[in-house]
């Protein structure tokens, strides 16, 4: 029998709402998982990616993580992990550093046997590269086998990875897939294999309303009645309380009514989200947020979802704005990378608060895939192509429309993780749209454009350690 804690999406270093207290909460949640592992004497802690929120964690986050991993090592409990999309770098991974320190094992295509179970790993792989995967894993002689992977797998929400393909094309018959990336805990059976997400260990967005936790996974022919061979139990974590207050205002009601509703809740040290609907008088969000913090809340955010009537005449055009945008884009010599950014900004499936994270991820993947930076070169627009056709007597027209690289929009659950994943100013004003949060925009731009951003921003570069 093998008993392991399956966790993931700890997002250490995430300053949600730009709060240092929330930053510490994410490390504390990971430490709580390790505390349970030590107290319960499990055989291993299995982490399914996104240990860190950012590929350039600050020194305090690194040192805090190392301290927690040392406690696990002192208890003789191995830490097995894969690399997630948030922490992935173009060179060596932070997980490699922890492995060199003797504090972790990075899972891959060779089996790592704990008890009577062989563990394999599959790091996050961009959608555009998955067709090249052969799912070739080395053989093992253990009683059970589990694949630890980071991605958005079917049949769960925001899926862009075919689970059945992974299982049927793999050289190893897996008893379970222990996944990360989707922040919502869930379990299903695919091709006679248990597939499960533990969810994130802290709420990375206001959309993650359910309590946080992790999985206890037992590999034992008798654990789940004899035939299933795998038993998955959900365990809860005691994390920062989130309070969600819904206020539907009637005509004549306003800020005083909102305050009455807020007073009905215990706000002590909580993150408070107030949503206003209905009719009623105008409400100043800042005033309500100040009231909530005066009542004991750590952080308060107000979203007023009511329509506001604008005074005065409004010039309305019934032309399709999307057509106008497309026409303008056709006149511009946008590069492939620029078109990726443009799609991320305009796609309805990407919440406003996730745009920054989505743009960042797509640019990073382009940098990884395009060693010659060809994706950043301008391409011929439709208008230029037509002119060229006329001038060249029928030469074929290049429409300038680049094919999508396969990266699906809206996978930020992740971080949904995805992670998606993105504390932006937009998240402050409409937090329920968010699924992951991101630090300030300047750091995002630096990551997306600077080939060695860690060398000039005062943060620690992994290459300094390796």
UniProtKB/TrEMBL annotation:
<dbReference type="Pfam" id="PF00149">
    <property type="entry name" value="Metallophos"/>
</dbReference>
<keyword id="KW-0540">Nuclease</keyword>
<comment type="function">
    <text>Part of the Rad50/Mre11 complex, which is involved in the early steps of DNA double-strand break (DSB) repair. Mre11 binds to DSB ends and has both double-stranded 3'-5' exonuclease activity and single-stranded endonuclease activity.</text>
</comment>
<dbReference type="GO" id="GO:0004519">
    <property type="term" value="F:endonuclease activity"/>
</dbReference>
<keyword id="KW-0234">DNA repair</keyword>
<feature type="binding site">
    <location>
        <position position="11"/>
    </location>
    <ligand>
        <name>Mn(2+) 1</name>
    </ligand>
</feature>
<comment type="subunit">
    <text>Homodimer. Forms a heterotetramer composed of two Mre11 subunits and two Rad50 subunits.</text>
</comment>
<dbReference type="InterPro" id="IPR054879">
    <property type="entry name" value="Mre11_Halo"/>
</dbReference>
<feature type="binding site">
    <location>
        <position position="150"/>
    </location>
    <ligand>
        <name>Mn(2+) 2</name>
    </ligand>
</feature>
<feature type="binding site">
    <location>
        <position position="183"/>
    </location>
    <ligand>
        <name>Mn(2+) 1</name>
    </ligand>
</feature>
<feature type="binding site">
    <location>
        <position position="9"/>
    </location>
    <ligand>
        <name>Mn(2+) 1</name>
    </ligand>
</feature>
<keyword id="KW-0269">Exonuclease</keyword>
<dbReference type="InterPro" id="IPR029052">
    <property type="entry name" value="Metallo-depent_PP-like"/>
</dbReference>
<dbReference type="GO" id="GO:0008408">
    <property type="term" value="F:3'-5' exonuclease activity"/>
</dbReference>
<keyword id="KW-0255">Endonuclease</keyword>
<comment type="similarity">
    <text>Belongs to the MRE11/RAD32 family.</text>
</comment>
<keyword id="KW-0464">Manganese</keyword>
<dbReference type="GO" id="GO:0030145">
    <property type="term" value="F:manganese ion binding"/>
</dbReference>
<dbReference type="InterPro" id="IPR050535">
    <property type="entry name" value="DNA_Repair-Maintenance_Comp"/>
</dbReference>
<dbReference type="InterPro" id="IPR032885">
    <property type="entry name" value="Mre11_archaea-type"/>
</dbReference>
<feature type="domain" description="Calcineurin-like phosphoesterase">
    <location>
        <begin position="3"/>
        <end position="164"/>
    </location>
</feature>
<keyword id="KW-0378">Hydrolase</keyword>
<feature type="binding site">
    <location>
        <position position="85"/>
    </location>
    <ligand>
        <name>Mn(2+) 2</name>
    </ligand>
</feature>
<feature type="compositionally biased region" description="Acidic residues">
    <location>
        <begin position="379"/>
        <end position="441"/>
    </location>
</feature>
<feature type="binding site">
    <location>
        <position position="50"/>
    </location>
    <ligand>
        <name>Mn(2+) 1</name>
    </ligand>
</feature>
<dbReference type="GO" id="GO:0045027">
    <property type="term" value="F:DNA end binding"/>
</dbReference>
<feature type="region of interest" description="Disordered">
    <location>
        <begin position="369"/>
        <end position="466"/>
    </location>
</feature>
<feature type="binding site">
    <location>
        <position position="50"/>
    </location>
    <ligand>
        <name>Mn(2+) 2</name>
    </ligand>
</feature>
<protein>
    <recommendedName>
        <fullName>DNA double-strand break repair protein Mre11</fullName>
        <ecNumber>3.1.-.-</ecNumber>
    </recommendedName>
</protein>
<keyword id="KW-0227">DNA damage</keyword>
<feature type="active site" description="Proton donor">
    <location>
        <position position="86"/>
    </location>
</feature>
<dbReference type="GO" id="GO:0000403">
    <property type="term" value="F:Y-form DNA binding"/>
</dbReference>
<dbReference type="InterPro" id="IPR004843">
    <property type="entry name" value="Calcineurin-like_PHP"/>
</dbReference>
<keyword id="KW-0479">Metal-binding</keyword>
<dbReference type="GO" id="GO:0006302">
    <property type="term" value="P:double-strand break repair"/>
</dbReference>
């Amino acid at each position: 029998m093998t008993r392991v804690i399956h966790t993931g999406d700890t997002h250490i270093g995430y300053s949600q709402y730009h709060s240092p207290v929330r930053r510490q909460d994410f490390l504390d949640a990971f430490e709580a998982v390790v505390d349970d592992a030590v107290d319960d004497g499990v055989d291993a802690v299995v982490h399914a990616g996104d240990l860190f929120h950012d590929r350039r964690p600050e020194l305090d986050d690194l040192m805090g993580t190392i301290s927690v991993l040392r406690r696990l090592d002192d208890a003789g409990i191995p830490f097995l992990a894969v690399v997630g999309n948030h922490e992935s770098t173009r060179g060596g991974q932070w997980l490699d550093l922890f492995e060199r320190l003797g504090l972790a094992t990075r899972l891959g295509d060779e089996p790592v046997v704990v008890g009577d179970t062989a563990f394999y790993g599959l790091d996050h792989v961009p959608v555009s590269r998955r067709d090249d995967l052969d799912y070739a894993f080395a053989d093992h002689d253990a009683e059970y086998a589990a694949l630890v992977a980071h991605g958005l797998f079917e049949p769960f929400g925001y899926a862009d990875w075919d689970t059945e393909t992974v299982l049927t094309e793999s050289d190893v018959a897996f008893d379970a897939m222990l996944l990360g990336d989707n922040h919502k805990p869930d379990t299903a059976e695919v091709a006679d294999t248990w597939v499960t997400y533990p969810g994130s260990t802290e709420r990375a967005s206001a959309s993650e309303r359910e309590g946080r936790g992790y999985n206890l996974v037992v590999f034992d022919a008798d654990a789940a009645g004899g035939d299933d061979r795998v038993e998955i139990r959900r365990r809860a974590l005691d994390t920062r309380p989130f309070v969600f207050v819904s206020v539907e205002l009637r005509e004549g009601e306003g800020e005083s009514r909102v305050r009455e509703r807020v007073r009905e809740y215990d706000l002590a040290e909580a993150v408070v989200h107030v949503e206003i609907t209905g009719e009623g008088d105008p409400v100043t969000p800042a005033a309500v947020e100040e009231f909530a913090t005066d009542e004991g809340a750590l952080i308060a955010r107000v979203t007023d979802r009511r329509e506001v009537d604008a005074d005065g005449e409004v010039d309305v055009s019934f032309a399709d704005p999307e057509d106008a945008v497309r026409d303008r884009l056709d006149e511009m010599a946008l590069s492939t990378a620029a078109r990726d950014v443009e799609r991320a900004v305009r796609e309805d499936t990407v919440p406003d608060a996730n745009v920054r994270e989505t743009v960042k991820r797509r640019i990073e993947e382009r940098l990884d895939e395009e060693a010659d930076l060809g994706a950043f070169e301008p391409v011929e627009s439709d208008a230029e192509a037509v002119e060229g056709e006329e001038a060249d007597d029928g030469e074929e027209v290049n429409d300038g429309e680049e094919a999508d690289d396969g990266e699906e929009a809206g996978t930020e659950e992740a971080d949904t993780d995805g992670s998606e994943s993105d504390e932006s100013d937009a998240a402050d004003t409409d937090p329920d749209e968010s699924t992951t949060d991101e630090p300030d925009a300047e750091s995002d731009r630096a990551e997306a454009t600077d080939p060695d951003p860690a060398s000039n921003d005062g943060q620690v570069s992994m290459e300094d350690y390796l």
